[in-house]
Input
Amino acid sequence: MQGVIKSYDPGTGEGIVVRDTDRSEYVLAPGALDGSIFRTLRQGQRVVFELDGSERATRLRTGAEPDLGMGSVQLQ
Output
């Protein structure tokens, strides 16, 4: 799914992402940034995410990561 970060607290890791298709809001799951290139998030940032079994946003990543077939992002 694709969406936009509505809010994020870097101190607690809590936040909300809004899905593009229907504007549904999802709370970030604990560890939602694990394995991602993201270290923090900002309001309005576009992300791709999945939902866990509790309907929380997890596995946040950019649209340029390998699972979208666009290659990986290289940080230098």
